[in-house]
């Protein structure tokens, strides 16, 4: 997180380093720094050089850029966000950051898509982070998680738990709760924009 300047990824620069979620437009937020740190810590053993990682609800691209720095030039890091304007902005944010070489080389990519469906074109993934709460773990994401991989996802409606899901080498899943959390919902674009 120290290598990627959060101020490049927030709308209000004066709030860049405050430890709370900040609005990024389109009824979305960038998570508080302590939540990003927790998710990176939970995924760190799966964010190794050469891996495939997926960031669902990539928003401004901050955590996707952190993934790129942690995993190095041989990795493949994918961000998926369903608001096109956020994807456009996230590309510009990453270009201004230390993760720019990964974007330029194509090792980091940011896409418009329904995060609940993951990004099957690049699957399977060693690490999946979901930045919005789902009432249940989407099957598509479980299917795209590589055996031996880990997913971190907030699960629940009004009250949520940050769940850690480890896919075993035999394909079975072990799941545990790390913390009680509060995230915006993982939803479709129309519902998010109140259209």
Give the topology, please.
Elements: E1 22-25, E2 28-30, H1 33-43, E3 52-56, H2 62-71, E4 76-81, H3 84-95, H4 100-105, E5 108-112, E6 125-130, H5 139-144, E7 145-155, E8 160-167, E9 173-181, H6 189-192
How would you describe the overall organization of this protein?
The structure is a single chain. By secondary structure, the protein is of the alpha/beta class. It is 25% helix and 29% strand. It is built from 6 helices and 9 strands, in the order ββαβαβααββαβββα.
Key attributes of the depicted protein:
195 residues, single chain, 7-stranded mixed β-sheet, two-stranded antiparallel sheet, EC 2.1.1.77, globular, alpha/beta, S-adenosyl-L-methionine
**Widest β-sheet, arrangement of strands:** 5-4-3-6-7-8-9
The main β sheet shows up as: 7 strands, mixed
Residue windows where pLDDT falls under 50 for at least 5 positions: none
Principal-axes shape call: globular
- Beta-strand percentage range: 25-35%
Number of strands: 9
Query: Roughly what is the average pLDDT, rounded to an integer?
Result: 93
Tally of DSSP helical segments: 6
State the distance separating the first and last CA atoms.
35 Å
Radius of gyration, taken over Cα atoms and rounded to an integer in Å? 15 Å
- Helix and strand pattern: EEHEHEHHEEHEEEH
Classification by helices and strands: alpha/beta
Helix content: 25-40%
Please provide a brief summary of the model.
By secondary structure, the chain is an alpha/beta fold. Helix content is 25%, strand content 29%. The protein is globular.
